[in-house]
């Protein structure tokens, strides 16, 4: 077996024991056949791989991007996209629709479940760290006969959700910039949908340019974003209470902060708690899969990506909760006045009441800067997902979108594509605020569907082909946590389709996400069945046998073809 060309053989069982059968062939260099319905898939074992490129070869790909991202910088890309204070500013008005109880406790309760979602994604990314992780995992665990179509719908849906995420972030940037103008004009300036889209479009173009720099600069940008976001949070937590004490005479009492429930809708109090309390945090902490999309640029990806996912969620969960508590301590008790502030954002009104005009403009400028970094990081993640999906011929114009610049090692065309998608989706801004708000719900629903699918499939048809990587909860806790998150994610997908009002639905208060989200998923299914089925057959290896043999090493080849390692192949 010393000749690597011995791999060029017809599929022959290499093992006769265990829960799965292992094959070696030209089509699938390391493949196993599931006995629980997942069919034949590549055998991938992150726990025994010696380095990133060896593991990537087992997954089926050659390295095309540079591994410049440290564990801190992988954490940084998710932390940057979450952009805690700017994100809270963008979604605060929705949270206040349930009073301080929804704002404070909705964030805390939902944060527990979101962290568990991150834990399950950390398990998946530790086992199979690749830029197209979500659709790849879906294919890997899906039932035989439905692998390609399920993977395709998730791949398209995730790409659109990430583009919608860029939209919602850059829309928040536009709101903050124009809110600063309104404050500077003492409220005597009107914000129109056209002005919002103009600033939004300019931000998207700038983020495209920022995304098209070399990987080393993108990695450094994450460090800048970490420090910028932490600086503005610390400044906010110090200055706002001081200003409130000096200019407003003191803080709201504990009952108002932690127990004051107000319902500014006609939904029942219980449902309004979920709508107002959960929506802000599920949008704010909704881009931790960006760590997955950077997996092929991360050093020691099977460990760095899980740490980045869980670390970013935990930090933003706790820091965000503290920020909300401070906000409720400093806010005007007339919450309706804050929600309907002439400054466009309730956050601007809170800062203005406590710190005055100059500080408000300064904070809005700082938040807009951090929001821009959020948009750049989000577009980076979106471009990597689009590139990875195009590499497997899943995107329209895949031959162009899969190209990587040989000098900068950046997928320029994929970055431009993600920007163009954001500009097109952003046209909803021109309709009205309700249509623009659909961008937030669409980003949430699309992401949660893409996260839910591989978890559910791994627990069902693909349970015997899952090989844990360095991070794994164990045989008892892993299924328990995974099933909990499947139920939570299904609930969130349904929840974000609801409008803010129960009665009197019209074009001004309708939640367009209930049409756009399922509509795009249905259209992607039709597109696959009518046309793309001919081209997309699931993730495909771009390694020939010699490249594979060189990447994994002779020891691995001998182990694959040897009957002496039977126990290594037993399903976990």
Automatic annotation (TrEMBL):
GO terms for molecular function: organic cation transmembrane transporter activity. The chain crosses the membrane at residues 69-89, 104-122, 197-218, 224-243, 264-285, 305-327, 361-390, 410-431, 438-457, 477-498, 510-530. One of its GO terms (cellular component) is membrane. Keywords: Membrane, Transmembrane, Transmembrane helix, Transport. The keyword Transport applies. It is found in: Membrane. It is a multi-pass membrane protein. This is GABA-specific high-affinity permease. The lineage of its organism: Eukaryota, Fungi, Dikarya, Ascomycota, Saccharomycotina.
